[in-house]
C-alpha cells in the first residue's frame, strides 16, 4: 500500500512539470537583417487591487486589461523565458511551463510587438514580422494622417503649424528621444481604440521625452492613448479634450494655463514620480471638468498634490466622480469663483517624512461646494486656510462621509496670519455630513497655541451613511 502511494505521488509530480513543451518561431523584417531580435515571455501583470475594485464596482477610470497595465520596461512581473533570433530569424525556447504569458518581441530601431495573454498549452510555433521605425519630420504644414499600426520615431522637435493637422490612428507607436517635443499650433488628433490604443513612450526607459504642448487656440482630441516617461503635457489657452487614456511612469505633470473649455475623463493616472503635482493649473480656467478619473500611487513620498489649482481664479472648475488615493496629498484649491467638488473618493492620503498631508485643502477666499464625497483612511480630511477676507460663508460642505482609523482632524480651520481667531459654523456651512465613529468629529482652529484637544466646535450631525451611498463610491474600512 505504501509503495502505491509513493508511486502515485511521483507520477503527479512528473505530470505537473509540463516538461517537453517548446516555443519556436521565425521573426522577419523588411531589412532582411534577421538576427538579434529578442523574444521574451513575461508573467501576466497583476492589476492594482484598489484600482481594479473601483473600476469594476463603480465604473470609474478605464477598464483594466493587460493592454493598458503591462509595459515590459516597467513591469513588476518577472521575465520568465527569452531568446534571440539567429541569422535566419529563428528562435527556440525549450522546457516551458504551460500557462498564460505576455509575449514581447523587440529590436533596436524597431517597434515593440506585444501578444498579451498569450497561451502556451503545448509545443508552439509562430511567425511574426516586426516593422522598423519611420522618422517623423520636424515640420507638419499640411494635413497628415499616419498609417494605422506603424511605428514612428521623434528625434527632436516636431511643430504642427497653424492650419495644419496630424492624425494618429489606432495602433500607432510613437517613440520619442530624450528631450524631444511636439508643439501644436494647428490640430492634433490621437484616435486609439480600446483594443488598439496609441502609445507614446521614450526611446530609453531611463530617460524622459520632454513635452507635448498645445499653443493658443490649438485643437486637440486624445482618445485611448497610453503615455509614459514624459515631463509635461501642456495646454496654453487651448481647448482640452482627453478621454479613456493611461498616463504612467512619468516624471511630469499636466499644466493647464488659461483654459477656456475642456474635459478630462475616464483616465487612469498612476505610478508617477514624486514632487510633481499631477494637474498643475497655473492661471484662470473657465468651464474645465475633471470627471471619472483615477489618480493613484503618485507623489507618495513627495510634497505635491494630485490636483493643484495654483494661486488663481476660476470661473468654473468641476471635479466630479474622481478617485484620489495612495498618495500624499489630494486636491489643493487656491481661490476661485465657482469650484464644485462632487462625488469624489479621497482614500489613503497620508503624511510622510516631508510633513503632514490632507485630502482636500482650500486656501483663501474660495466659493465652492464640497458635496457627496467620501473621505476614508486619510491623515487629514479637509484643511481650510483663511486670509481674513474669507469669513463670508461661501464654502459649503454637504452630504459627505468622513471616516478614518488614525485621523488627526476631520476639518481643520487655519486662520493663517490672523492668529488666535476662532472660526465657527458661520464660516463654513455644514449640512447632513456623516462624521464616522473612529476619529474626532471636530472643527479645529489650528492657530490657537497648545490647545488642540480643547478648542474647536463639535459638529452634532450624525446621520446614517446610507443617506449618501448614491454619491461617491463608499468602500468600508
Describe the model:
With 477 residues, this protein is mainly beta. The protein folds into two domains: 19-130, Immunoglobulins (Immunoglobulin-like); 134-468, 3 Solenoid (Pectate Lyase C-like), CATH 2.160.20. It is built from three helices and 43 strands. The chain has a 24-stranded mixed sheet that branches. A hairpin with a 6-residue loop joins strand 5 and strand 6 (113-120). The protein is globular, with a radius of gyration of 26 Å. The model is unreliable at 1-17, 417-422 and 445-477 (pLDDT under 50).
Give the helices and strands, then pairings.
Elements lengths: L1 H15 L6 E7 L8 E5 L6 H10 L7 H4 L9 E6 L5 E4 L5 E8 L6 E8 L3 E7 L3 E2 L3 E2 L2 E3 L5 E4 L2 E4 L4 E5 L3 E4 L4 E4 L2 E5 L6 E5 L6 E6 L4 E5 L1 E4 L1 E7 L3 E4 L2 E3 L4 E5 L4 E4 L2 E3 L8 E3 L3 E7 L2 E3 L10 E3 L4 E7 L2 E5 L3 E12 L2 E5 L10 E12 L2 E3 L3 E6 L9 E4 L2 E3 L5 E6 L13 E4 L10 E4 L11 E2 L19
How many independent structural domains?
A: 2
Structural class: mainly beta
The portion of residues assigned to helices is: under 10%
In CATH's first tier, which class of the largest domain applies?
Answer: Mainly Beta
Fold-level CATH name of the largest domain = Pectate Lyase C-like
- Strand content is 35-45%
Span between termini: 52 Å
Total count of helical runs of at least 4 residues: 3
Mean pLDDT figure? 77
Write down the overall geometry.
Answer: globular
User: Low-confidence segments, ≥5 residues, pLDDT <50?
Assistant: 1-17, 417-422, 445-477
Q: Which architecture of the largest domain would the CATH scheme give at its second level? A: 3 Solenoid
Overall radius of gyration: 26 Å
Count of strand segments: 43
Largest sheet descriptor: 24 strands, mixed
Amino acid at each position: 500500500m505504501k509503495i502505491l502511494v509513493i508511486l502515485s505521488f511521483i507520477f503527479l509530480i512528473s505530470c505537473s512539470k509540463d516538461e517537453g513543451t517548446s516555443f519556436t518561431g521565425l521573426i522577419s523584417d523588411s531589412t532582411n537583417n534577421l538576427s538579434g531580435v529578442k523574444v521574451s515571455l513575461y508573467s501576466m501583470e497583476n492589476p492594482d487591487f484598489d484600482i481594479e475594485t473601483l473600476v469594476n464596482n463603480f465604473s470609474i477610470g478605464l477598464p483594466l486589461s493587460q493592454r493598458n497595465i503591462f509595459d515590459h520596461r516597467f513591469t513588476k512581473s518577472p521575465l520568465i523565458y527569452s531568446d534571440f533570433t539567429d541569422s535566419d530569424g529563428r528562435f527556440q525556447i525549450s522546457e516551458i511551463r504551460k500557462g498564460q504569458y505576455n509575449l514581447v518581441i523587440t529590436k533596436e530601431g524597431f517597434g515593440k510587438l506585444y501578444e498579451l495573454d498569450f497561451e502556451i498549452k503545448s509545443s508552439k510555433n509562430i511567425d511574426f514580422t516586426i516593422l522598423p521605425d519611420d522618422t517623423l519630420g520636424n515640420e507638419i504644414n499640411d494635413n497628415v494622417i499616419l498609417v494605422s499600426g506603424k511605428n514612428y520615431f521623434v528625434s527632436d522637435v516636431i511643430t504642427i503649424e497653424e492650419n495644419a493637422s496630424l492624425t494618429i490612428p489606432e495602433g500607432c507607436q510613437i517613440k520619442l528621444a530624450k528631450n524631444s517635443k511636439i508643439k501644436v499650433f494647428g490640430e492634433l488628433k490621437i484616435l486609439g481604440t480600446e483594443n488598439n490604443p496609441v502609445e507614446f513612450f521614450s526611446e530609453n526607459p531611463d530617460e524622459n521625452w520632454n513635452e507635448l504642448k498645445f499653443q493658443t487656440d490649438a485643437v486637440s482630441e486624445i482618445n485611448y492613448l497610453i503615455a509614459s516617461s514624459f515631463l509635461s503635457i501642456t495646454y496654453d489657452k487651448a481647448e482640452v479634450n482627453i478621454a479613456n487614456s493611461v498616463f504612467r511612469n512619468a516624471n511630469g505633470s499636466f499644466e493647464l494655463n488659461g483654459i477656456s473649455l475642456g474635459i478630462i475623463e475616464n483616465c487612469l493616472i498612476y505610478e508617477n514620480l514624486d514632487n510633481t503635482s499631477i494637474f498643475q493649473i497655473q492661471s484662470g480656467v473657465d468651464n474645465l471638468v475633471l470627471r471619472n478619473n483615477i489618480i493613484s500611487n503618485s507623489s507618495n513620498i513627495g510634497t505635491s498634490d494630485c490636483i493643484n489649482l495654483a494661486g488663481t481664479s476660476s470661473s468654473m472648475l468641476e471635479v466630479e466622480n474622481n478617485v484620489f488615493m495612495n498618495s500624499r496629498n489630494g486636491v489643493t484649491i487656491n481661490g476661485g469663483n465657482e469650484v464644485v467638488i462632487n462625488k469624489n473618493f479621497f482614500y489613503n492620503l497620508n503624511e510622510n517624512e516631508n510633513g503632514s498631508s490632507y485630502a482636500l485643502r482650500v486656501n483663501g477666499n474660495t466659493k465652492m461646494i464640497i458635496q457627496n464625497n467620501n473621505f476614508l483612511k486619510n491623515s487629514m480630511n479637509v484643511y481650510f486656510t483663511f486670509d481674513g477676507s474669507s469669513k463670508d460663508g461661501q464654502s459649503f460642505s454637504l452630504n459627505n462621509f468622513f471616516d478614518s482609523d488614525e485621523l488627526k482632524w476631520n476639518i481643520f480651520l487655519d486662520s493663517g496670519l490672523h492668529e488666535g481667531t476662532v472660526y465657527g459654523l458661520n464660516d463654513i456651512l455644514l449640512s447632513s455630513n456623516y462624521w464616522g465613529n473612529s476619529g474626532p468629529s471636530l472643527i479645529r482652529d489650528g492657530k490657537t497655541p497648545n490647545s488642540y484637544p480643547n478648542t474647536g466646535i463639535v459638529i452634532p450631525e450624525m446621520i446614517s451613511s446610507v443617506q449618501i451611498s448614491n454619491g461617491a463610491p463608499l468602500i468600508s474600512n
